Amino acid sequence: MKSRTGASSEAADRPRLISRSIAELSAIANEYDFDPALRLRYWIRSASTLERQARIYDDEKVYDEAYILYMRYAQLVLNSLHTHPEARRIPEKVLLVKLTKVSVKR
């Protein structure tokens, strides 16, 4: 049986070894450009997608990819989105607060 990433279920049961250092993974996570000219709702949707994809990788024990996406999500939500010009509007503020309250399932 194949998992969501295409790996067999036997392979999905074993954690994939992290072949890169935390510094390398963090550098990869920083490789995106935040453009405040794009509508905030697109950035919010991107953040939600990053978090959802990170959970999938985490569930499938692909920890290096999960780390990259979780880091990118955290940096986007905690460091960038609140600086967006549209972040001052009430509906967007509510969405940003929801993004910062992501629950960790375990």
UniProtKB/TrEMBL annotation:
Domain USP8 dimerisation residue range list: 18-88
Protein name: Regulator of free ubiquitin chains 1
Coiled coil, from the record: none
SUPFAM superfamilies xref list: USP8 N-terminal domain-like
Keyword Ion transport: no
Domain of life: Eukaryota
Similarity-based family: Belongs to the RFU1 family.
Ribonucleoprotein as UniProt keyword: no
InterPro entries named in the record: USP8_dimer (IPR015063)
Keywords on record: Protease inhibitor, Thiol protease inhibitor
General function of this protein: Inhibitor of the DOA4 deubiquitinase involved in the regulation of protein degradation by the proteasome and maintenance of a normal level of free ubiquitin.
